[in-house]
Specification:
The complex is a heterodimer.
Chain A (H helix, E strand, L loop, with lengths): L2 H23 L5 H6 L18 H5 L7 H11 L46 E6 L9 E8 H9 L17 H8 E10 L6 E2 L16 E2 L5 E12 L9 H16 L1 H19 L2 H14 L4 H22 L3 H25 L3 E10 L7 E10 L6 E12 L11 E17 L3 E14 L4 E3 L17 E3 L5 E13 L4 E10 L9 E6 L2 E2 L7
Antiparallel strand pairs in A: 1-2, 2-3, 3-6, 4-5, 6-7, 7-8, 8-9, 9-10, 10-11, 11-14, 12-13, 14-15, 15-16, 15-17
Helix pairs in contact in A: 4-11, 5-6, 7-11, 8-11, 9-10
Chain B lengths: L5 E2 L7 E3 L4 E7 L6 E8 L2 E4 L4 E4 L3 E11 L5 E9 L2 E9 L6 E8 L3
Parallel strand pairs in B: 2-10
Antiparallel strand pairs in B: 1-2, 3-6, 3-8, 4-5, 4-7, 7-10, 8-9
Classes of the chains: A alpha+beta, B mainly beta.
Chain lengths: 526, 112
């Protein structure tokens, strides 16, 4: 088994263990708790004597008002909590500027100079071709998953109930914490040409011209894992009383109003309720249930009676509507879509977003490194402009025998400005990006040479298993301009032009243009 | 102009109203909280996506559905019927639950 495969299996195993531990650690939510989740002050009437409770107060707890949690209740009661796997994956907003679907910085072919704050809700796959940051022209594929999204997908709603971004403080701690974690792994597709391949330096700034004369035998072709990483979102909650937030909120809600997920919701509600409302069977149930619930003695009795009444309603609705089960699934799906879009928009207006990211990089034929990165983004005004800043340091995981230098490899600073442009009808918004990148190489870069110490195709004897390339330490600067053109809900075409003062290995200026394709498959799982 | 909606005392429906009566609905939140109706549907028909949200009462039990959002969870919101000539009545008061932004009411159109 290759080193990359071992690392990959170790990473997958760790992720699986984490998920399994989370399953064991948290109790399953009961159907009635699912139904009443978030009811809050609407249950205050339970503090009154039964005779003082009003019909309307009790009505505010019944299914026409609690449509979404009623659908969850039915789903839990009918024992098919996993039927909506697809519902948990949803539309990813094409409007979003700060979503990372490409590779994080580092591997071959990336067209991004720095990482952004947010990760796709469940799964994002980005494939980008070309790139100045490394010399080969292979493809990089990145898989990135959010731990809450995966956990809900795998273990169901009862285990990990919906947690609104707006009300995270009242979410279950497990859902709140899991949402903050995402993990990723990137794969490179390295294609051999003439029996040799280019050495791939360790880092974003490790690019070199296509004709770079560092040729040595590398251990593999085709796909290989380039890196894996975990990210923790440390974004503080918005101050909900801040006038700036209230202004941004109005903008987000205006966008939400026009979204297809919002427009699709009423039809799904109609499918569940209208038959039984218009033939009065729901209304008769409502009258009886309301009277019974008003007379309950305390909260415990209320919950027991409510569960009994809801079960009765399910039987009535099933009898009246042969498509009831499907309609419930459609309603849950419609709400999941709506919530995904809403949460996405509300996350977008969080004024100061921050993440910490750890990436374990495995550049082909090179020494593995660890990168710790702090990512910050901020939308300073109501204009659709996003500022992102990265600060990072890279360390060698271990120094090869005989190598000179320190564990610290380099320090990086980068800034990026994204500006959303006008909408292309039916395709979405184009985004213009301007970015700058600075890297300080503490020491000369290390590259690995094969055990025979002879460069392939030559008789040149290389100096040991780790070679220090002379005069590569120092300062590297890169400036990039990029235009991302939407090509549908899933695909975007980034075009960029990049200038650098040098690469890690070659002290020459370089200017390069790139074209790529990024795909986000979350939106396919509607 | 008199208000159209009357609270039902039975619990069988939320409101009673005369068929043909034209109803205008709005949403109000407390000071410092934004509250908006995103969508309104009555008797299976979408009404409008922008204020004023108006519909005409039909005979029989029909579902009125509102999709509402507020900038703060738990905010006390009011659904208001604008009865014209400056008259208004509060027809529903509730604490905003972001997990249940859709609200449904049965409006029964009755002649007398």
């Amino acid at each position: 088994m290759t080193g990359a495969a071992v690392s990959l299996s170790r990473s997958c195993g760790s992720a699986l263990m984490l998920i399994l531990m989370s399953l064991a650690a948290f109790a399953q939510t009961s159907p009635i708790d699912l139904y009443l989740a978030g009811a809050g002050g609407n249950l205050n009437f339970l503090g009154k004597a039964p005779a003082n409770r009003t019909v309307q107060e009790v009505d505010n707890i019944l299914p026409l008002i609690r449509q979404r949690t009623f659908a969850d209740y039915v789903n839990a009661k009918l024992g098919d909590d996993r039927a909506d796997l697809k519902n948990l994956l949803d539309a990813v907003s094409a409007l979003r500027l700060n979503k990372l679907v490409g590779s994080t910085t580092g591997p071959a072919g990336t067209t991004s100079l720095l990482s952004r704050v947010a990760a796709p809700a469940v799964l994002g796959i980005g494939v980008e071709y070309g790139g100045i940051l490394q010399q080969n022209s292979g493809a990089t594929t990145t898989l990135r998953a959010n731990l809450l999204g995966v956990s809900r997908m795998v273990f169901g709603e009862q285990q990990f109930p919906y947690c609104p971004v707006l009300d995270e403080a009242n979410c279950r701690p497990d859902s709140r914490h899991l949402r903050r974690f995402s993990a990723s792994t990137s794969f490179e597709n390295i294609r051999a040409t003439t029996g040799t391949a280019m050495a791939t330096p360790l880092n974003p700034a490790a690019s070199a011209p296509a004709a770079m004369p560092i040729i040595t035998e590398l251990f593999g072709h085709d796909f290989r894992m380039a890196n894996w990483g975990i990210r923790f979102d440390v974004t503080p909650s918005n101050n909900l009383d801040d006038p700036g937030y209230l202004t941004s909120w109005r903008g987000a809600i205006a966008e939400l109003r026009q979204n297809e997920a919002t427009k699709a919701l009423p039809a799904a509600v109609q499918g569940v309720f209208d038959k039984t409302v218009e033939d009065d069977s729901y209304n008769s149930w409502n009258q009886a249930a309301n009277a019974a619930l008003r007379m309950t003695s305390d909260e415990r009795a209320f919950r027991l009676e409510l569960e009994k009444q809801l079960d009765l309603l399910i039987e009535i609705m099933k009898a009246k509507d042969p498509n009831f089960r499907q309609n419930i699934l459609d309603l849950r799906r419609a709400y999941t879509n709506y919530f995904t879009v809403r949460d996405d928009l509300l996350q977008k207006i969080q004024s100061h977003k921050m993440s910490v990211e750890y990436t374990n990089q495995h550049p082909q034929g090179q020494f593995s490194t660890s990168n710790v990165r702090f990512i910050y983004s901020h939308q300073p005004t109501n204009f659709p402009t996003l500022i992102t800043v990265n600060a990072a340091a890279t360390f060698y995981n271990s120094l090869p025998a005989g190598a000179k230098g320190a564990q610290l490899r380099d320090v990086q600073l980068a800034g990026q400005l994204d500006r959303r442009l006008s909408q292309i009808p039916k395709f979405g918004y184009a985004v213009a990006t301007f970015a700058g990148y600075y890297q300080w190489m503490k020491n000369d870069a290390l590259i690995a040479i094969g055990p025979d110490n002879i460069a392939p195709g030559s008789s040149i004897v290389l100096p040991g298993t780790a070679a220090t390339l002379l005069r590569t330490k120092g300062h590297i600067g890169i400036v990039q301009g990029k235009l991302s053109i939407p090509a549908g809900t899933v695909m975007k075409i980034p075009l960029s032009i990049t200038w650098s003062n040098r690469t890690e290995l070659i002290k020459e200026k370089d200017i390069r243009a790139q074209a790529g394709i990024t795909m986000d498959f979350d939106s396919l799982f509607h | 102009m008199p208000c159209c909606l009357t609270l039902s005392a039975t619990g069988k429906e939320r409101f009673l109203a005369k068929p043909g009566c034209k109803i205008t609905i709005s949403l109000k939140g407390p000071s410092g909280v934004n509250a908006e109706i995103l969508h309104i549907q009555y008797a299976g028909d979408p009404i409008d996506e922008e204020e004023p949200f108006e519909f005409t009462v039909k005979a029989g039990p029909k579902r009125l559905s509102l999709l509402v959002e507020a900038s703060k969870p738990g905010a006390l919101l009011q659904v208001i019927e604008d009865c014209g000539s400056g008259d208004r009545q509060i027809v529903d008061t509730f604490f905003f639950d972001p997990g249940n932004p859709g609200r449904g009411y049965v409006v029964r159109g009755v002649s007398s």
